[in-house]
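New to this. Help decode the following:
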Amino acid sequence: DRRDWSYSPLFSSVLSYSVFATGVRHVSGIEIYTPSEIEAVNGTDVKLKCTFSSTQPVTLTTAVVSWSFRGINSKVFYYQESGHPPLEGRFKDHVVWSGDVLKKDASITLQKVQPTFNGTYICQVRNRPDVHGISGEITLKVVDKVSMSEIGMLAAAVGGACAVVLVLLAIVVAVRFHRRKKMEKDIELHHPKPGVL
């Protein structure tokens, strides 16, 4: 009595599990890329950069971008075929679209930032039917002056050290040159040239 195991529920379950376990299953998803943290001087404009990749072709009708602000659950910006800035709230008249979904860019620009803009901004992108993926997050710090980055501080320290070394080297060369001239002058005074009275 031979049974066709290909139609067995148990066989199907085992086969499904083995396919899942070996990682053969393909899952579509949006990949979003943002800087983790940026600084902006109070009263200036700052671009919140958000780019993405999708397993599906990106068109103006399929791509939807949504920016929100963590904490007060405030909508910052919405894009579907065109930009829709907020009509009320703290971000009214302070947000403009800076992206291009056809180039997979979902960036916005905050204009004349204020201390109340401090916080985390969330970038979400959907490109039907590719609607799954992790959101991008940017923490904005509004400061009075832009602080020097670690790389900037290191460059300043190295540049300062090089300048000090060059100054010391110039001093050593000048001193040696002066001593040599003085020695030559002393030799001429103590040993006059023949025929000179």
Observations:
- The helical segments are 9-21, 150-190.
- The two ends are 137 Å apart (CA to CA).
- The chain has two domains: 27-143, 148-197.
- The first helix runs from residue 9 to 21.
